[in-house]
Amino acid sequence: MHPQPPRWMDKLLALYCSAQRFEELQGDLHELYRYDQNKKGNAFAKRAYLWNVLKCLKPYAYNYKSHNEHHNKNTKDMIWKFLMLAFRRLTRQFSYSMINISGLTMGIVCFTFIYLYVSHELSFDQFHTKKENLYTTPFTWHFGDTTLPTARATSNVGPLLEQNYPEVQRFVRLTPMSKVVKNGDVVAEENSFVFTDSTFFDMLSFELIEGNPKSALVEPKSVILTEKMAAKYFGPNWNRGSLLGTTLQIGAEEEYKITGVAKNPPSNSHIQFDFLASFSTFPEMANISGFDNSAYLTYVELVPGANIDQLRSQITEDLKKGFNGELPIEIGLKPFNEIYLEYGMSTGVGPISNITTVYIFGGIGLLIIIIACINYINLATARSVERAKEVGVRKVMGAARTQLIGQFLGESVIITFVSVLMALALLYAFLPLFNNLAAKELDLNLLSDTQLPLFLVIIWLSVSFLAGVYPAFALSGFSVIGVLRGRFKNSSAGSMLRRVLVVFQFSISVVLIVSTIVIYKQLSFVNNKTLGYDKDLIISLPLDPQSRPQIELLKQQFEKLADVQATSVTGQLPSQISYESTLAIKEGEENRQLMRISYIDNDYVETLGLETISGGEMSITNTEAYEFLINESAAKFFGWTPEDAIGQRIKIWNSEWGNVVGVVKDFHFSSLHEKIKPLVLYNTEGEGFGRNNMMLRIVSDDFTATLKSIEDIWSKTVTHKPFEYAFLADKLDSSYEKEAHLSELISVFSILAIFIGCLGLFGLVSYTAYQRSKEIGIRKVLGASVGNIILILSKGFSRQIVVSLVIGITAAYFIMDMWLQSFEYKTTIGLDVILLSVIVTLGIALFTMSFKSIQAALLNPADTLRSE
Question: Is the model's pTM score more than 0.90?
Answer without folding.
Answer: no
